[in-house]
Task: inverse folding
């Protein structure tokens, strides 16, 4: 089939969203704005300070509304091949400096990576993911809350929403692991499966003292770039990723 001369195509042959902005069926990008409902107990804050996620946890306590028409206007000007917004006043993009400024995340340290389907090879002792989940979090979700390597976020919220006053330090650490996994899943790396949490984060929260040694800022920026590239496709209408970062950056540049 020949290309439509009235459309704008990306280098990979996919129709760019700007090629359909004059169509009657065009709609604004919709976003996934999910904050997890786990209470931020004062006893876990020292751990979050160690791992460098305190500011992100504070942001999670506040709901925000994404200006979807404004974001849609910016996405129309996003060019995936260069990861750049082409504006009337010139080119601009979100940088690592912006991630540090808005999220206070580290951009130094070990890289965050790993395939979602083979993450178990990074688990100590080669244990199955579910066994390690029970060992690190102290409880295993019922089977109907599990789908392959994901767990329902609602179960996580209900199970770890309250930390009793008389719990020992090991219980607190389990709560910190659960809170951190939910924080990473819903604030930095949320995707189209926004109602589920992937247990790949087990390999990162197993040793809480080591989490701060990862470059979470560069991983979050990379994921935001990927999400913007996906939604630049005219057939994609859901925008995921670290949306608070995107919103803050846009509001400072409009």
Result:
């Amino acid at each position: 089939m020949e290309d439509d001369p009235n459309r704008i195509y990306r280098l990979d042959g996919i129709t760019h969203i700007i090629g359909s902005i004059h169509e009657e069926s065009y709609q604004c990008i919709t976003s996934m704005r999910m904050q997890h409902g786990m209470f931020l107990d004062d006893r876990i804050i020292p751990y979050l300070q160690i791992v460098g996620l305190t500011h992100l946890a504070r942001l999670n306590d506040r709901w925000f509304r994404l200006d979807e028409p404004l974001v849609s206007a910016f996405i129309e000007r996003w060019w995936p091949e260069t990861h750049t917004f082409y504006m009337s006043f010139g080119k601009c993009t979100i940088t690592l400096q912006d991630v540090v400024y808005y999220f206070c995340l580290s951009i130094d340290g070990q890289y965050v990576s790993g395939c979602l389907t083979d993450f178990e090879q990074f688990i100590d002792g080669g244990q199955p993911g579910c066994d390690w989940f029970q060992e690190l979090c102290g409880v295993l979700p019922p089977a109907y809350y599990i789908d392959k390597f994901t767990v329902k976020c609602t179960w996580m919220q209900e199970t770890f929403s309250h930390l009793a006053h008389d719990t020992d330090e090991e219980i607190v650490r389990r709560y910190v692991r659960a809170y951190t996994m939910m924080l990473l899943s819903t604030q930095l790396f949320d995707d189209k499966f926004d109602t589920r949490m992937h247990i790949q984060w087990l390999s990162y929260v197993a040793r809480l003292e080591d989490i701060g040694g990862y470059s979470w800022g560069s991983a979050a920026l990379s994921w935001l770039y990927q999400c913007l590239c996906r939604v630049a496709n005219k057939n994609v209408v859901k925008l995921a990723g670290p949306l608070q970062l995107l919103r803050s950056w846009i509001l400072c540049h409009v």
The longest strand covers residues 84-87. The two ends are 40 Å apart (CA to CA). Residues 83 and 225 are 7 Å apart (CA to CA).
